[in-house]
Structures are given as structure tokens and as C-alpha cells.
Design goal:
By secondary structure, the chain is an alpha/beta fold. The chain is built from 20 helices and 25 strands. It binds 2-deoxy-2-amino glucitol-6-phosphate. 2-deoxy-2-amino glucitol-6-phosphate binds next to α9.
């Protein structure tokens, strides 16, 4: 996905736009650019690569003007070159865009036949050329924008500025978020509240199909029928400080250290301290009547969903399916109308997960989403939402949001087990107690990072790494492998430990570290056997376990990371932390860009 900002005020726009883009860079960082109105004309500065390249260009060649728009790009159509960098435009209009214009080819052919000259291969330029064509037909900017928006198909958040109109910015949203910020004699547009946090906490969100006309004092909102509407202005709890790195070297390091607080906040909100019973917000459906749960998500969020599937079936005894959203949305499984669709997403804008949600709705499922952004598209499309309250997660690799999702899903499982009268309150209280011990144990893991740092030196030398787990820890093996891949660029695979003998054991030799997520519990001995098989073939066995488990595997382990003992129910949450720490320390050794790994973006809002 991309990030867009807009400013209309009295101070120079360029530094404000750049600061807003800095806060959006985690959304995409292939190229960046801004456009301002200078003496009524549109001027642009664009640069390939990270935002720092644009900042250097602006230092060398400043851009005046108090009205402007900016963009940081994760390339979808067209290579990440300066030519394809936003803003796109003509002498009359400049546009920045997040999303995909799905009918761009058809519009482009029509516009070219009408004499419009395209200079890029991007879908975004189609918007600029369409508005330009309408302006050339003597339409006023507001009318031209409204007509153009009516022609666009696909997903977009847009901001436009117009030559000769320094008092005007127009924004539009359909399938990708856009927020209006209210300043003093200054108004803002941003892809989310994060971008606007240093400027204002007074925010109003557009709804899908909305467009908005800004001048420096106010915002006029219109709906998809071009009728004036009111969109509520609210105060965000985001401040500039909340989204800084503090004393940490990377956002990811800061967010790793937030695990204890975030898990604690979730559990204290979802477990009654007096009764020790799980509590859920009001939902517009009867949980006890749910016959089946269908989970869908992407990436780490999917691994949280996989863990939840294990919990829901083993503890709440409810049939549960889980599938990655990019597969689920096209599989189109028939679903029972009394089912629950359960979506998991940090940012709440992931295109595939939104499509899975829409399919579940078409199958008349009750829709519950586990989200970290309550104003997101997914929140608005759901019947109910469980907030992971993890605060902004800026590092592209998901860390605290993942364990917050697990904590929410663990508490939800117990609430469901209780509603379905599967577990007695005594057992539920025992399990909630186990959960409530996690924050302190998480802090212990973070404090004792020496063995993980030492292990990172071994892993950094590897070309291929295997992560093994069983049961609810199998998804944690997947998560460990994903983290290593996405921030250190080392190939890694997460595997069900029991599956090794069905093929992957052929990969084992002395060059392959085999990392086992193996807490003590009913499946420990089975995992231990799998590790013996791998050790017999020369694999480097690395064990993540509690002291008891580690002692049992001492004879084959090349290295061991001792994790505080915990109930097997809570173990996946706790073990997620050291595997993420390991990936972080390996990435440091590899010298990769930890917070903004190559080719990635924080939320994938396109298919
Ligand atoms: C996780 O480290 C990745 N950055 C990625 O897999 C992410 O979890 C996935 O894209 C889903 O994002 P979401 O939770 O915002 O939907």
C-alpha cells in the first residue's frame, strides 16, 4: 500500500508534507514525491527509493507554497522509478493515490483517443488525465473531480490539487482509508491518523464512496451520490510521542519490548480480575448458538488464526476452519448460515482479508474481526470487533500486534468454551490465571536475551533454516520462519514436526539449523522424537523450551533457549516472543533494514 498526505494552510507545506510522509513510510517506500502550488502553478519534486532521497532533493531544490500533496509508494503498476513516482499530473492537476484503479486500461484508451498524452505506465496517471480532460472542457475543479470519481472502478484513496486554486484540495476514498485533519487555519489529508498525529488530533474519517473538499478553514464532505454529508470529528489518542522510536534503535525493537504491556492490557480488558472469567463486549449475535467458525487472515495474522483454530476446537469443541484469505476468497466454500466468520488483521485494510470478509457476509455469516485499528475498513464492515489495543505498530514485521491477537483469541476461546458450557469455571479460571502470568514471563524473556543473541550468530550464517512445532505451537514455527525471512532475507520454513519424516527430512544436513518450538506438554515427547530423527542425520538442533524440556533434549541440542515454564494453553503466546527476537538479532547481524525490509509494506491493500 502507499501513503498519501495533503496540507492546505498558511505555513510552507513542504516540511509538513515530508513529516507526514515520514510517518507513513512504513506503508511503502519504493519512491516518494510532493507537489505544491507555486504562484498558482503546480511544481513537483519526486525521488526513487527511500524518503531520505526526497528530503535531500528538497534541501537542494526547495519547494515553496502553502498548499500541497505528498505520496510514498509501494509499487503495484509500474517499476519504482522516479517517472512512476507520485504525484502524477498535468499542468492543470496533480494527484496522489493509494490503491488500484481497476478500469485504468479502458479509461486510458478512451482518454488517449481524445488526445490526452500519457507519460507513465501507472494506473494513477489515468485519474490525473481524466480530471485534466474534464477541466479542459471548462469544468470547474469540484465538478471535474466529482465526475471523474464516478468513472473510477477499483480501490482508491486520492488527493488532488489544481493549478490556479491554492485554496483547494480534494480528497476521495473507496476501499482505501483517508482521514481529514482539522488544524488552526490549516487543514490536512492523510492515509491514517498516524500521518496527522504531529499536526492535529482532531480527525474525521471518510467512508467508502465519500469525497471531500478542503479549504484552509473547513472540510465539506459528499457521499457517493454527491450529496453533502456530515462525518464525525473525533479526537485520536495518537500523539507524536506515541509513534516515535523512543530510545530504541528500531521501531521493531521498541515494539518487541511492548509485548508485556500490550498482552497485559488485552488480558486485563478481557478477563475480569474478580471472577477470573473472560468478558467480551456486547455482540449482535448469540455466541452459544454459533455452530461453526471460519477463520481467514494473511501472514502473521493468519498464524494467529491457526493457533486460535487449535484452541477453539480443543477447548471450546467448536468445528473451526482456517485458511489464508488469498486462497479462501476464491475457494468459495459453502458456509452454514449460523456460522461465525472470524477475521484477524493488524491494520484492517488487507485487501485479501477484506475480500474474505465480503465472501463470508455473502454466506450470511456473523462477522467478528480482531483488529488493531478500530477505524479501519474491516471494523466498519464487521458485525462486531475485538480490539487488540496494541497501539500503532510501525515496524513492517508484525510483533506486538501478533501476540495481542493471540491474547485476544485465547480469551475469546475461553469465553466461547464457557458460553457453550464445555469447560467448568474452575478450569476456565485456571487457564485465565495461566494467561495472566504471561506478561511477567514475557518481560523475563526480553530481559534474558543473551542466548538469543548468541544463537543469532549461528543462524545469520545459515542459508536455509527449519522451524518445527506441533499443535498450537506449529503456527509459532510458521511465525518464526516468516519473521526470519521477511527481515533477514534468509530462507526459512515452518513445518509441523510430525511431517518431517514425510519428505522434508531429506533437507537435513550439518548446514541446516532445525529450530524446535517445544514447550513441555502433551506433545513434547512426539516433538522430541522428531528432533532425534533430525539429529541422527546431522542437523543442528536448536531447542526453545522450558528448563524441563531443555534438560530432556540436552544430549542432541546444539543450542538451547530456555523459556519460562507455562501452561501449554498459554505457551504459543510466550514462545512467539523469542522467535521474533531471534529474527530481529539476525537481521541486525545481516545489516538489513529492519523496519522497512525490501519489497514489503506494512499493510497489503492490493490483491
Ligand atoms: C507480518 O510480519 C507481515 N508483515 C505480514 O505477514 C502481515 O502480518 C500480513 O500482511 C497481514 O497484515 P494485517 O494483519 O494488517 O492484515
Amino acid at each position: 500500500m502507499c501513503g498519501i498526505v495533503g496540507v492546505i494552510g498558511t505555513a510552507p507545506a513542504s516540511p509538513l508534507l515530508l513529516d507526514g510522509l515520514r510517518r507513513l513510510e512504513y506503508r511503502g517506500y519504493d519512491s516518494a514525491g510532493i507537489a505544491t502550488l507555486v504562484n498558482g502553478h503546480i511544481e513537483r519534486r519526486r525521488a526513487e527509493g527511500k524518503l531520505v532521497n526526497l528530503a535531500n532533493l528538497l534541501n537542494a531544490s526547495p519547494l515553496p507554497g502553502v498548499t500541497g500533496i505528498g505520496h510514498t509508494r509501494w509499487a503495484t503498476h509500474g517499476k519504482p522509478t522516479e517517472t512512476n513516482a507520485h504525484p502524477h499530473g498535468t499542468a492543470r492537476v496533480a494527484v496522489v493515490h493509494n490503491g488500484i484503479i481497476e478500469n485504468h486500461a479502458e479509461l486510458r484508451a478512451e482518454l488517449e483517443s481524445q488526445g490526452q498524452r500519457f507519460v507513465t505506465e501507472t494506473d494513477t496517471e489515468t485519474v490525473a488525465q481524466l480530471v485534466d480532460y474534464l477541466l479542459a472542457q471548462d469544468m470547474e475543479p469540484i465538478e471535474a473531480a466529482a465526475v471523474a470519481f464516478g468513472r473510477l472502478e477499483g480501490a482508491y484513496a486520492l488527493a488532488l490539487v489544481f493549478a490556479g486554486h491554492p485554496e483547494l484540495i480534494i480528497g476521495a476514498q473507496k476501499g482505501a482509508p483517508l482521514a481529514v485533519g482539522f488544524g488552526d487555519e490549516e487543514m490536512y489529508l492523510g492515509s491514517d491518523a498516524l500521518a496527522l498525529a504531529p499536526l492535529t488530533r482532531r480527525i474525521a474519517y471518510l467512508q467508502d464512496g465519500d469525497w471531500v473538499v478542503l479549504n484552509r478553514q473547513s472540510a465539506a464532505f459528499f457521499d457517493r451520490e454527491n450529496q453533502p454529508v456530515v462525518r464525525e470529528m473525533r479526537l485520536t489518542n495518537l500523539t507524536g510521542a506515541a509513534i516515535g522510536k523512543g530510545n530504541f534503535r528500531h521501531f521493531m525493537e521498541k515494539e518487541l519490548h511492548e509485548h508485556p504491556v500490550v498482552i497485559g492490557d488485552v488480558l486485563h480488558r478481557m478477563i475480569d480480575a474478580g471472577t477470573r472469567m473472560p468478558v467480551l463486549p456486547e455482540m449482535p449475535f448469540d455466541l452459544a448458538a454459533i455452530s461453526r467458525i471460519t477463520i481467514s487472515a494473511c501472514g502473521s495474522a493468519f498464524y494467529a488464526g491457526l493457533t486460535a483454530r487449535f484452541w477453539l476446537e480443543s477447548l471450546a469443541k467448536i468445528p473451526t476452519d482456517a485458511d489464508v484469505a488469498s486462497e479462501f476468497r476464491y475457494r468459495e466454500p459453502p458456509l452454514e448460515t449460523s456460522g461465525l466468520g472470524l477475521l484477524v488483521s493488524q491494520y484492517g485494510e488487507t485487501a485479501d482479508t477484506l475480500a474474505a470478509l465480503r465472501y463470508m457476509k455473502s454466506q450470511r455469516q456473523n462477522i467478528l474481526s480482531v483488529l488493531n485499528v478500530p477505524e479501519s475498513s474491516m471494523a466498519r464492515a464487521s458485525d462486531a470487533m475485538l480490539d487488540t489495543i496494541a497501539g500503532p505498530e510501525i515496524g513492517v514485521a508484525s510483533t506486538k500486534a501478533f501476540t495481542a491477537q493471540l491474547a485476544v483469541l485465547a480469551a475469546f476461546t475461553l469465553a466461547l468454551a464457557r458460553a457453550r458450557k464445555i469447560l467448568p469455571d474452575t478450569e476456565i479460571a485456571r487457564l485465565t490465571d495461566a494467561l495472566l502470568q504471561i506478561p511477567a514471563k514475557a518481560a523475563e524473556v526480553l530481559a534474558n536475551d543473551a542466548p538469543i543473541k548468541a544463537l543469532a550468530r549461528r543462524i545469520a550464517e545459515a542459508r536455509d533454516v527449519l522451524y518445527l512445532g506441533r499443535g498450537a505451537c506449529f503456527p509459532i514455527a510458521l511465525e518464526g520462519a516468516l519473521k526470519l525471512k521477511e527481515i533477514s532475507y534468509i530462507h526459512a520454513e515452518g513445518y509441523a514436526a510430525g511431517e518431517m519424516k514425510h519428505g522434508p527430512i531429506a533437507l537435513i544436513d550439518k548446514s541446516v539449523p532445525v529450530i524446535a518450538i517445544a514447550p513441555s506438554g502433551p506433545l513434547f515427547e512426539k516433538t522430541a522424537s522428531n528432533l532425534q530423527e533430525a539429529a541422527a542425520r546431522g542437523g543442528q538442533i536448536i531447542v526453545f523450551s522450558d528448563a524441563e524440556g531443555a534438560a530432556k533434549l540436552r544430549n542432541i541440542a546444539a543450542e538451547t533457549v530456555i523459556i519460562p515454564d507455562t501452561d501449554p494453553f498459554a505457551a504459543p503466546i510466550l514462545h512467539a516472543i523469542p522467535v521474533q527476537m531471534l529474527a530481529y538479532y539476525v537481521a541486525i547481524l545481516k545489516g538489513t533494514d529492519v523496519d522497512q525490509p525490501r519489497n514489503l509494506a506494512k499493510s497489503v491493500t492490493v490483491e
